[in-house]
Amino acid sequence: MGEGFEKLSGAKVLLLGVGGVGSFCLDCLYRNGIHDITIIDCDSYDISNQNRQMWSELHEGESKVEALHTHYPRIKTIEMKITPQWVEEFDFEPYDLVLDAIDDIHAKLALAQKCYAKLISATGSAKRLDPTKIEVSTIWKTHGDRFASKIRYELKKRRFSKKYPVIFSSEPAKTKVKGSFVGVTGAFGLTMCSVALQRLLQK
Q1: Beta bridge partners of residue 76, listed in sequence order
Q2: Residue ranges of domains in the chain
Q3: Which residues, in sequence order, are CB contacts of 129 under 8 Å at separation 6+?
Q4: Which phi and psi angles does 44 have, rounded to 5°?
Q5: What is the pLDDT of residues 99-157, one digit of tens each?
Q6: Which residues touch 133 (CB under 8 Å, ≥6 apart)?
Q7: Which residues, other chains included, contact 91 with Cβ-Cβ below 8 Å and sequence gap of 6+?
Q8: Between helices 22-31 and 64-71, what is the axis angle to 10°?
């Protein structure tokens, strides 16, 4: 067994959100030997997310975390809504990495402030069509993403100046209404997995 595989197989990862981004990230992590993964989500699968979320078509009406446990049996699951209060009370110390694939800005801000040193975060992946526009940078160097801009603004208001990696797209939104393309949301999740693997292998 190589040193790199030992690092990955011994890693402990917390994945917040297992939707269009997080489900692909989970699959990628698991296939690369990381099995000590705790996933947290409060939603259920329905017909509206079958276009972008792994396994959704097989588990309509079921809890996401419970359904995913059947496909990735070694993971741990918590069915919980991620809020700023939850972030404040949760113990992040045991985890090597915290992967943020949620879309609640208030919870994202709380995560950045509490565990930026372990954090890898995804911003807006909806309303886009071009996965080649996905980039990885610190939160302070994101561009072309209004959601990331709001996060930067709110962090500055809180006098937060630390750096943490962010996956974002510089592609302008292609529609004003809701909509997601799995070619982008999935690529966000796979990019998050890639950044996570690189971080773990550097330890």
Answers
A1: 38
A2: 3-202
A3: 171, 174, 181, 183, 184
A4: -115, 160
A5: 999 999 999 999 999 999 999 999 988 878 899 999 999 999 999 999 999 999 999 99
A6: 144, 169, 170, 171
A7: none
A8: 20
> Any bridge partners for residue 133, and if so which?
none
Q: How many Å is the maximal CA-CA distance in the chain?
A: 50
**Distance between CA 48 and CA 144 in Å, rounded?**
27
Identify residue 29 by its one-letter amino acid code: L
Amino acid at 95: Y
CB 122 within 8 A of CB 18: no
125 CB-contact burial (10 Å; exposed 0-12 / middle 13-18 / buried 19+) = buried
Enter the pTM of the model.
Answer: 0.94
Say which amino acid occupies 94: P
Tokens at 13, concatenated:
């990862």
Token code pair at residue 12:
């402990």
Say if CB 38 and CB 13 are below 8 A apart.
yes
Q: What is the CATH number of domain 3-202?
A: 3.40.50.720
pLDDT per residue as tens digits for the range 51-110: 788 888 888 899 999 999 999 999 999 999 999 999 999 999 999 999 999 999 999 999
Order of strands across the sheet that contains 134-138: 76-79, 37-41, 13-16, 97-100, 119-122, 165-169, 134-138
